Amino acid sequence: MHHAWLLAGKRGLGKMHFAQAAARALCGAEDADGSAQHPDIHVLTHLPKDDKEERKRGDGKPYEVRRNITVGQIRALQQRLTTRPTLGSRRAVIIDPADDLEKSASNALLKSLEEPPAGTYFLLVAHRPAKLLPTIRSRCRVLRFSALDDDALGNWLTSQVPECDADTRAAAVRASGGSPGLALDFVNRGLGPLDTLMSRIVRDGDRNFELRGQLADVVGARPDRERIAAILDLARSVLASEMNRADRHAWSPLVDAHAELVRLAGQAPTYNFDPGLLVMEIGTLLASAAPASERADV
């Protein structure tokens, strides 16, 4: 089998679960459910942001993570790869998500992909494969994960959250773009009211800023990074949905607003945005996509 695999697809399609199952199969792990750690399966992901967050992790509490997977993590892994596997002839390295490797970490990883230790297999989870170095992508076989269709996703969501009402379920299916993980996150984060407000802003505008004020109230004063990312994804989904129902001649403001949201989503993980101002900016971009009679007032 090829030594490096790129598991590519949008967030929430189960790529990490697949990587864990594949790693356990490669290493001959007996507990197929992955309930116990295996000494020959190495997982690199975001570390806690600082010592305070590390203590939270140690206590089993929610904690904030660093924005990137660091070169120090790759170097530490490479030191471990100089020895033989512990229990057999194979070991697996999972990097999740590989598209969050900092530049120096990517360059360091490339050396291991070019000259892989015997019996070592790399499984790179990537939500945005284009962010990876072309030289890394060229050394991997690509396994793409496809989104589910609306019916399949709706049925799955019903089985997971049977108490979810039909309107929320339909909104979650539309907003997630076929991703089970994102659909479940939509429900668990209570994004239904935000979806309703965003849709109203895009269709009706927000001449007196009332809806944007409600949007800020629903988001809350101190949303964490994951909630901000979910809100940005939702805003883009609302615009895409509106584009599907709008006449072609009305696409231009929708496309422009969507492009700006893509730019913001790319900056949010690394820029120190004020959450309140960022939410107002999202609301204003949505309002700018409303009919022309409203856009002049935003």
UniProtKB/TrEMBL annotation:
Coiled-coil intervals, chain numbering: none
Domain of life according to the entry: Bacteria
PANTHER family from the UniProt entry: DNA POLYMERASE III SUBUNIT DELTA, REPLICATION FACTOR C / DNA POLYMERASE III GAMMA-TAU SUBUNIT
Pfam family, one: DNA_pol3_delta2
Biological process annotations from GO: DNA-templated DNA replication
Protein name: DNA polymerase III delta prime subunit
GO CC terms of this entry: DNA polymerase III complex
